[in-house]
Fold:
Amino acid sequence: MRCHRKSLKSTELAINTVYEIADVFDDNKSIKIEIVGVFDVKDENDAYWAEGLDSQYTAVVFTDYDTMLGDCVDTGVVNITKAVHNYAVDYASMNMTDLASTNEMIAKQKTYFGENSIGFSMPASDILKDYESRSSQLQLVLWLLQIPVILMIIFYLFMVSQLNVEQERNEIAVFKSRGASRLQIMGIYALESLVLGVLTVIIGPFAGLGLCKVLGASNGFLEFVNRRSLPVHMTIEAVVYAAIAVAVFFVTTMIPIFPATKTTIVEHKQSKAKKKKHALWEKVCLDFILVGGSVGWLYYYNKTQEKLVAEGVTDTTATVNPIMFVASTAFILGLGLFLIRIYPYIIRLLARIGRRVWSPAQYVSLTNIGRSSTGRERFLMLFLVLTVSLGVFFANTARALNRNAEESVAYGVGCDAVLTEQWYSSKIESAQQSTPQSASQAAQSGTKQTSEESDEEDTETTIQYVEPVFERFEKLAGVEDVTKVFRKDGVTISSNKMNVPRQQTKSDDEEKTRDDFLDQSVDTSSGKSSTSNVQLMTIVPSDFSKVCKFEDRLLPVQLNNYLNALAEYTPGVILSSSFKSYGLELGDTVECKWGGNEPFEVTVLAFVDYWPGLSPYKEAKNGGYMDFAVMNYDYVNVQTSMEPYEVWFKLKDGASVQEFYDSIDKAGIKPLTLESASQQTIEKKNDPMLQGMNGALTLGFIIIMVMCIIGFLIYWILSIKSRTLQFGILRAMGMKFREIIMMIVYEQLLVSGVAIFAAIFIGGITSDLFVPLFQSIFDASQSVPPFAVIPERSDYLKLYAVIGVMLLTAFVVLGRLIKKIKISQALKLGED
Structure:
């Protein structure tokens, strides 16, 4: 047998020595074993030794399995009292498709072993269950995000097919008049669709594979970083989805063809001369139904969510409703339909009002659009409204999600970096209770500590701390500004004007005194009411303003106004708005006390809902939320004994966080905790939910914009080709070629320009109404800052750039197309 080298010392065994092992039940039975060698572990991080050598194997001898059963157990001398089977799972090789089967197998094993009185423990099982739940939530959200894109693609296919059928309706009517059956005509177009579909099935999945790899590097909306591509691979499921997409494409393109195949050439010519009737959607008022239905659902949903959010419900499977994605698209579609319903009447009114001043090109443009109440221009306007509005909606959705992630980190940390270090004191010198860490270790600790916790018997004892040299922090790499921030929880604020409701904390010990049950109490001797659920922050106002990060929209006035008040009136305090409910008003004097310090008075300068680094949702012992108070550091430092403070940093633009960490180690600073806003933001953005949504929204935006450009070009190319005869008539009536070009430009502005402008407006309204619903994915009840939809100028510039490229490309293509048209021969072609 063999043993670990540490066993020789702990068990006093010796190599090449024979030992006799006796049966605990029969002293006459025994077997002899010999220690033939020792071993050491090559790599203690190997999964084989995951339990650790020191805790498990320092008093153990090892032998092979067959020897154990044959030479030891079979003799009856050695009795098995416990058998442990350890499994090492390679989690790195697992993916989402393995989670369900793995968790199911773990559950079966746990049940099986439990029924046979065998202990079974897998520490990672809870993590795997949570990961499976999150993965299913992510898949649900990603699918839901594609609903508007899928609907947009279907509409795009229908529009293009409709335009194609309108262009070829004459040829279809000729086929019908010459004896072709409807089945034969539809077979021609079905064959074309099938050829395109087969090519799509072959090329599409591989194109999607490439897009998925690229989108893995998404760090925000249309933002990419140098990150390793996603480990994606082709599956049979992707091919099935491709086949379903082709089937949808086939059905969508064939729908407009079917009614066209029943018309002969004579009926076709007669239908062109007839006054066209209103479309079915106009008769049934589909636009009003879509807008009213979506707004009504939104009102109902918000009322329901108010109750869920108040209770802190954040389970996306319960709160993310697929209808929200359909409702947002329906709202855009309804407003788009309403626009094209009223727009021809507006154009007719403009044409009538300025009929004496319009130039020929302007008058013809207005007349063409005004008379196209059932024409293809309405298709283009609706298409542009849908695509551009969805683009704006996607951009604002992604921006709101990313802004929420970034602002929550910035608010929680309060600045670029926060550091706390061990201070020497009389207590610490007598008994070192905390081991300092390196900068990198402290940055990974993930918790924020403000000062050393004292035992209950020491709370009234004054401890003399030795303040470290503060100037060291100013010399660290990349530091632009630095300030002192002292924080303390459990501070008591009292006043005879306060009326604090008494709240009982949870406690299992019924023998405790009344004071242990009450965090808020009334001092009957002085008539003062007090609360001990207060977070205190003291700051140096002039330095704090340079260092802190804060959104001005969270306060009624700019943050510097409050800081100026604290600087000008040092014995002042800024309280959380919760103190208003206690009866305090501006100008009231309150008393502050904690630990062994003497109480001191401060005057209320302002009430605020939010303050950098102070969460209004921090839980108190009684289950409620803690209040907070902000005071002047220098004033409080004079009134109380000095205690360890936090050091808040503002780093220079472009400063390296790693260099900042390294400089802390080189300076000999041993931080207890170290928080970096940039590092936490990176962790937040690497969250699978946010990363997946950024990728999905980016992909959706790209697809929609590509459809917008292609659909726009298809429309105008077909429009120009179908109007060759009209151009010839206008030329014959004396209109110059330049005026014809201007007529097309005016039509572009009146159709495309108005539609794009309206789409941006509609997209903004839709964002304001529906993007806030995404807060249900996160803990909206305690979201700090509150979830907000604030458009980013850069997102709109990206959208404007795409629209500009689209219009410029259209003008170039249409210009070249018009030049090739022989307008002088158009009348002759029309007669033929």
Summary: Residues 423-452+459-501+517-669 form one domain. Residues 376-413 form the longest helix (38 residues).
